[in-house]
Amino acid sequence: MKVERQRARRDEDKEARRRVLLDAARARFERMSYGDVRMVDVAEDAGLAKGTAFFYFPTKEGLFLALLEELLAGWLNVLDGELEAGGRWSPARVARLFAQTLVERPALSRLLTVLSTVLEHNVDEAQVLRFKQMLLERLGRTGALLERRLDLLAGDGARLLLRIDAVIIGLRQLADAPPAAAAVLARPEMEPLRVDFARELEIVLIMLFAGMSR
Predict the structure, then answer these.
(1) So what CATH class is 60-212?
(2) What was the pLDDT predicted at 151?
(3) What percent of the chain has pLDDT over 70?
(4) Rounded distance between C-alpha atoms, residue 90 and residue 107, angstroms
């Protein structure tokens, strides 16, 4: 029994360190760009040695892929809880749900923009496999709820979520202009080129949902 308690305590300690690293990474990412976040700073914020941080997450990409997995699962949990409500939904209602919940989670949409170009590089195949398996299972579950609420053709729900992902990435990148571009876009004559992420996302999703609904 003593050995089991010691093992359980060690597991708890490991999970606690992993948790504090993820929280520190998220806090830094919410204040700065991904490129400006350094593992040494995350470790310091977490109160851990740099070597300890790399023991739990051998690369910065691996740390942020784990963070994205957590944020994505949390968002899908919220969507599932809302979509469990029975009856047929209008495309506008579903679009508002997606837009509002994403606006409340800026770190999630920002991380999605660097998933395939950054986060899935410099990580081992096992971590990518775990992430993709989670994604496959969760998109199937949420997609099935979307099919019922929007009366979509059977089997289109998961594919629809992938299309939504592409929309999120594109609009997030357009909305988050770098400093020089943001300064230019602030000029009155540049108003047609400015992108309000929440507003445009809702409009595009209404169009997408309406087009796929029967």
Answers:
(1) mainly alpha
(2) 77
(3) 93
(4) 28
